[in-house]
Amino acid sequence: MTDRPRDFLDGISGALASEDDIIQLMLVTFIGLSCYNVAELVVLVPSTFRRWHGLYFWALLVTGCIGVVPYSIGFMMKFFTRADSVLSVTALSIGWWTMVTGQSVVLYLRLHLVLRDEGVLRRVLWLIVANVFLLHVPTTILTYGANIVHSGDKAWVWGYNAMEKIQLTGFTIQETLISTLYVVHTVKLLRLGAVVTTRPDARTIKYQLIGINCAFIAMDLMLLSLEYADFYAVQITLKGFVYSLKLKLEFVVLGRLVEIIQGSRDLISVAMADTLPLCSVTRQPATRECSEE
């Protein structure tokens, strides 16, 4: 029917074709970069936050260390070793749950800084919780079914491949929605905040924040395109790298956001006050200001 590697056809139950050296090298590179980005994250997060506590602080670390790393290692074991399927599938499943929903939680916590409507925030939270049951649970059941319980069964493989597209679409919509809300309300903050709008670089900051969040959306759409094009192996290994990169970009967003809210503390949501210790470098030479909202 086709000469493509079996992995591209069989989804998670397939083995990586040994003759495709370029694909193997590409996947190993993505996995290595994912783990490297998380290693940087482990250094950056504690050095950026003055106090090691708060939901945002732990969400970043947990998403990287318990999400991206087990996810990447799980697929490394699946594709390149003879490790027991139970071990590799369990590792990648735990990592996938933590990485994907953890990223949404990070975006949700950051949204508190610019959005004060508790009704909207509550609905976003319920969306994240609902998708755990609607998307994570059935995908995990089909993953174990296609690999362990009914290993190689075509019906389970087809079910998994269909659910993989559904869950990726659902989580892309979820993250796009949260990022869009953040952009819209950040622009409103810049327009309405009297202290903020007097900043000479307010327009530049606004464009940078919009650009970074558009990059988040573009990366998600790229993964979705690869999935619908049936480049499964590339998509799932690139996903770990993409999520690790998005976590690193969070520091850029955080730094620019701190610049915006300095001097405009009345615009910060009270709900975020006890969860996000901010540390930033001010524009005065040799002066470092850390503050806990």
TrEMBL record:
<dbReference type="Pfam" id="PF24802">
    <property type="entry name" value="DUF7703"/>
</dbReference>
<feature type="transmembrane region" description="Helical">
    <location>
        <begin position="94"/>
        <end position="113"/>
    </location>
</feature>
<feature type="transmembrane region" description="Helical">
    <location>
        <begin position="125"/>
        <end position="146"/>
    </location>
</feature>
<feature type="transmembrane region" description="Helical">
    <location>
        <begin position="166"/>
        <end position="184"/>
    </location>
</feature>
<feature type="domain" description="DUF7703">
    <location>
        <begin position="23"/>
        <end position="260"/>
    </location>
</feature>
<keyword id="KW-0472">Membrane</keyword>
<protein>
    <recommendedName>
        <fullName>DUF7703 domain-containing protein</fullName>
    </recommendedName>
</protein>
<feature type="transmembrane region" description="Helical">
    <location>
        <begin position="205"/>
        <end position="226"/>
    </location>
</feature>
<dbReference type="InterPro" id="IPR056120">
    <property type="entry name" value="DUF7703"/>
</dbReference>
<keyword id="KW-0812">Transmembrane</keyword>
<feature type="transmembrane region" description="Helical">
    <location>
        <begin position="22"/>
        <end position="43"/>
    </location>
</feature>
<feature type="transmembrane region" description="Helical">
    <location>
        <begin position="55"/>
        <end position="74"/>
    </location>
</feature>
<keyword id="KW-1133">Transmembrane helix</keyword>
